[in-house]
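SEQUENCE AND FOLD
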Amino acid sequence: MNLSLTEEQLLIQSTARDFSSAVLAPAAEKVERDRTLFLENLKSLSELGFMGLNVNSKYGGTAAGVIAFSLAITEVARGCASTAVTLSVSNMVAEIIEAIGNEEQRMHYIPKLCDGTYPAAGFCLTEAGAGSDPAAMRTSAVRDGDEWILNGSKLYITSAEYAGIFVVWAVTDKSARKGKGISCFLVEADTPGILISKAERKLGQHASSTNEVVFDDCRIPASALMGAENQGFRVAVGELTGGRIGIASLALGLGLAAMDYATEFVQQRKQFDKAISEFQGIQWMIADAYTELEAARLLVMNAAYCKESGQDYTVPASMAKLYASEKAMDACNTAIQLLGGAGYLQDHPTERYMRDARITTIYEGTSQIQKVIIAKTILSVG
């Protein structure tokens, strides 16, 4: 088995790493308070070609593939998780448009995402009563001549404040059984009838806005329908699966950042007249954490490879997301422990890493949902 990266993948990884360490990491705290700087960093990433990593160059994308996308997200997350999640979701939206949009939709929207005209994109699926069970959504779209009228609300939408375009799922056939009769729409952010609520106050990833998006008699043209009418739920499920590769990659980057910082710290910190890295107990904590993160990396790379090569990647993506997110949390916890009391202070980034990592076990499908997906496949039930 050849696990080596191509020259292009190595170039994208090194470019992301350099930008992350030189630009993102030094500003990671500041962007939580400075929206302008956050948007500037997103614009810089678009100029580097990172907003369409797995999108055809015909539409302004880089066409580097899923593995390259995963590598980039990991490196960006080392510097700033808020930037990484915005990058991941925007890439996912670009892929959706390319996959199911018509040529006019692709040519109109994807270049604006790739070149930074749209700072970000929104993925509007989750609702108050439809989180882990998205088929229970209640947002509706009713046809009215040459228009659709959207009504309802979506919760926890990443980058809603910054998004130039939203992909929105809504019920278009209320008589259909659950999971059916759902369609997918492209909705521009400045469309009348859209209300972006104030940003949620969150435990972590503060620079990445998370908002409720309300549709109040929001009229969109009939041409906003993406893909076949009443066939949108299958698309949503498929894109969530791909999104898990992005979040697994992000979690991996956070875990590595935390352990890299802690490892450097313990080599400088002295107790009992020697660096604490010389104590076997400390060494074992470091060895365990890096071993688990390496296992996570291999799972993430396998999931990315399966998607890129056209294989079924449902279970590999769930396994990668489950393991990487949980082990990232473990790594962040270990990093704080290695720093001792200092790790609990905001003087060091370890407390931010842990706060930022916590959500990775929840969004794009909780750890428990990943286990359900994995177990059902293994047991061939459901």
